[in-house]
Amino acid sequence: MKRGGLPPVEDEEPPGRLARLFEAIPEGTVLRGVFVCLLGMAVGVVGLDYYEMTQAAADTARTARTEPLPLARPKPGDQIRPYLPKTIPVGPDRGEPKLPGYDGPVDGEAMSRPMRFVEAGNGELTAIGRIDAGTAETFRALLEKPGSAVRTLVLHSPGGSVSDAIVMARLVRERKIDTSVPADGYCASACPLLFAGGVQRLAGEGAWVGVHQVYAVEVAGATRPRDLDGSIADIQATIAECQQLLLDMGVKPEVWIKAMKTPPEALYVLTPEELRDFAVVTPERFGPPMPEALRRAA
Fold it and tell me: pLDDT tens across 183-209, in order?
């Protein structure tokens, strides 16, 4: 007869190496480690939020600035400058552009307002200010006004609506109008698209003609956020329109490559050599302008 009692205890498997290491950690160390990790993540999130806030504040200051900004004249290899949509760059070596028929301010006050058209006589028309949605229709109405005989469009503009600039450029070419950026003038962002429409294109000494990437903006009064996929598709379609316009106007594609490499908050200012090499400007003609009857027949 077997004696009663507790069943024999089976041998327990010894803990593995990882378990032994874990057991060797002093009590509370794991919790402290978890706390430090969470604290580090919180600091990282706060830091990222702060960075985004400072970037947003800087961008707001840049886009809202109407006071002219002193900037050094671009040189070959040093051509990236901030893009200021409501003012112009100034400097000790830059003067004020002379705009036919216009004697008002040429800096922030003018740049922040919708584009205005000033008839100067002798076939000259000055366009100054931002290209807003609807500017193309205003321009069309002016060209279709009885007695209108615009031969040269003088530009001083920070750009704006790409779609309106494209329509205006095609109107300029249909009407066989020349375009000009005066000495020390400014033509940036969407403005060079309009400039490209000219049959003859001239940029005066010290003129800034600058390009950058196409970008989407929120529509004022929109009832819902823009759809991301839709926005990307719209931008791609607009980029294709810009490329087609430049091709149709005889401008070389190299200028568009410069634009696509430059972020929206910056501006790639073309040198006089690039303006010529990329056919942004045309060879200067000699002699008096062609008579109006011959221009229309050309």
Answer: 999 999 999 999 999 999 999 999 999
39 occurs within a structural domain: yes
Assigned domain for 2 exists: no
| Alpha-carbon gap, residue 169 to 245, rounded angstroms | 8
Whether 273 maps to a domain, the answer reads: yes
Query: What H or E segment, with its residue span, contains residue 181?
Result: strand 178-181
Which pTM value belongs to this model? 0.75
**SS3 (DSSP) at 38:** helix
Its domain, for residue 31, covers: 20-61
Distances (CA, A) of 270 to 181, 210, 278: 13, 6, 10
Which residues contact residue 25 at a Cβ distance below 8 angstroms, ignoring those fewer than 6 apart?
Answer: none
Q: How many domains does the chain have?
A: 2
Distance CA 164, CA 193 (A): 10
